[in-house]
Design a protein that fits this description.
alpha+beta, seven-stranded antiparallel sheet, two-stranded antiparallel sheet, 42% strand, CYTH_domain, CYTH-like_dom_sf, pyrophosphatase activity, Triphosphate tunnel metalloenzyme 3
Length: 194
């Protein structure tokens, strides 16, 4: 697939994704997760704090509420090394949401859940921004195509046609990357490891 899309390649991002919750899983109990993502694009590095909630995955199309804010990479690393520091980010709009919407109090603190790494290849293809992720979970590698769109069903049909025309086997996602990470098992493609 990457060979076919190579004329449309715009950038490569190296990502580290780390996840956090309270010791009693207050966020997970309400179908939410807090993530710190570190990006490396050439010599430029950045960090984003995300709160993802209310994920629904139907026939390979994911809909999730995602709220993000930039985080200084040095502060992000400090929080990754000591998740209790997340509670001290008093100016963070997302941590305020964790307190107000999810009942996460300062006494609860945060714990690290671990994470995984991605190499994300970004393509501008037929007016769409495609992101092809190679995700290394530590227990195996999996590939996924992502495309944010206001018309997910149309994009899904267009991608399916492209994959079929080019003889590329695929399978709809049955769970998010985070759920795959937490399960400790890779999804399978027609009985074979994908």
């Amino acid at each position: 697939m990457e060979t076919l899309l190579s004329p449309f390649h715009t950038k490569t991002l190296h990502q580290q994704n780390l996840f956090f919750d309270t010791p009693d899983s207050a966020l997970a109990a309400r179908r939410a997760v807090l993530r710190i993502r570190f990006f490396q694009h050439g010599a430029v590095s950045s960090c984003v704090l995300s709160l993802k909630a209310k994920a629904v995955l139907v026939d390979g199309v994911s809909r999730v509420e995602e709220d993000e804010e930039e985080l200084d990479p040095v502060t992000g690393r400090e929080c990754a090394d000591n998740p209790l520091k997340l509670g001290s980010l008093s100016k963070s709009r997302l941590l305020r949401r964790c307190r107000e919407e999810y009942g996460v109090t300062g006494e609860m603190g945060f714990v690290g859940l671990g994470g995984f790494n991605n190499v994300r290849e970004v393509y501008e293809w037929r007016g769409l921004k495609l992101e092809v992720d190679e995700t290394d979970y530590g227990f195996g590698v999996c590939y996924e195509v992502e495309c944010e769109s206001e018309e997910p069903e149309r994009v899904k049909a267009e991608l399916e046609a492209f994959l079929k025309e080019n003889g590329i086997e695929y399978k709809y996602s049955e769970m998010s990357k985070f759920a795959t990470f937490r399960s400790g098992k890779l999804p399978y493609l027609q009985g074979l490891p994908s």
